[in-house]
């Protein structure tokens, strides 16, 4: 289980401190899928980074009782000077994985071909996202953090991502943050809306989406 307890996150800015999360608390058990809706800049990605351990809260605690992925489709961990293949080799060594089987999977899944032998810094955003998603699938986690992964690639690649993530790993916990409400509705069984630092939970998608729409129209 992941336990988020009274998490407060503040970023200092030239205009003063900006409170991104205010006393956010929830748990995420194995197999649960929590969808979080919110406007741009609401703090959704910050929440994912805190749960992944990439950032620490200003106050409060995040306890990881199971293995947690980095935010999927996030390529920030890549070494830009290295090729795609070298990055796979590097990550395979860190997690003590078999490099050759991993590279076979990544090559087949991404269909990047010769580009895998080019430095990652030369990749387009889409190519980088393909590599990031495939690398995320070679390491098995108990909980996946999914940050706008629906925006990766074309329709065929979306279908392959759906199979790998939601069919083959249906028993895993997931935190899904997305601007696509249908993506959240389709894949989640718990729902929350993040607005002005407050995270509010709703018993069903329709209530959460209604609040999200009112926020978007300035009615909340």
Automatic annotation (TrEMBL):
One of its GO terms (cellular component) is membrane. Residues 2-220 form the ABC transporter domain. It comes from the Bacteria. Keywords: ATP-binding, Nucleotide-binding, Transport. Coiled coil: none annotated. One of its GO terms (molecular function) is ATP binding. It holds the Pfam family ABC_tran. This is ATP-binding protein. It comes from Novosphingobium resinovorum.
């Amino acid at each position: 289980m992941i336990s988020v307890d009274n998490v407060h996150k503040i970023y200092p800015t030239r205009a003063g401190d900006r409170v991104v999360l205010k006393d956010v608390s929830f748990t995420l058990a194995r197999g649960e899928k929590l969808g979080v809706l919110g406007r741009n800049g609401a703090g959704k990605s910050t929440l994912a980074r805190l749960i992944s351990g990439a950032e620490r809260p200003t106050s409060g605690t995040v306890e990881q009782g199971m293995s947690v992925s980095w935010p999927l489709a996030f390529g920030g961990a890549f070494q830009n000077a290295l090729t795609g293949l070298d990055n796979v080799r590097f990550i395979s060594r860190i997690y003590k994985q078999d490099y050759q089987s991993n590279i076979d999977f990544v090559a087949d899944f991404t269909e990047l071909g010769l580009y895998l032998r080019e430095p990652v810094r030369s990749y387009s955003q889409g190519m980088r996202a393909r590599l990031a998603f495939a690398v995320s699938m070679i390491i098995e986690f108990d909980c996946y953090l999914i940050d706008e992964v629906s925006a990766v690639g074309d329709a065929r690649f979306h279908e392959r991502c759906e199979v790998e993530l939601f069919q083959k790993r249906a028993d895993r916990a997931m935190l899904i943050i997305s601007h696509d409400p249908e993506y959240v509705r389709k894949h989640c069984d718990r729902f929350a809306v993040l607005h002005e630092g407050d995270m509010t939970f709703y018993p069903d998608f329709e209530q959460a989406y209604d609040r999200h729409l009112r926020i978007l129209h300035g009615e909340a």
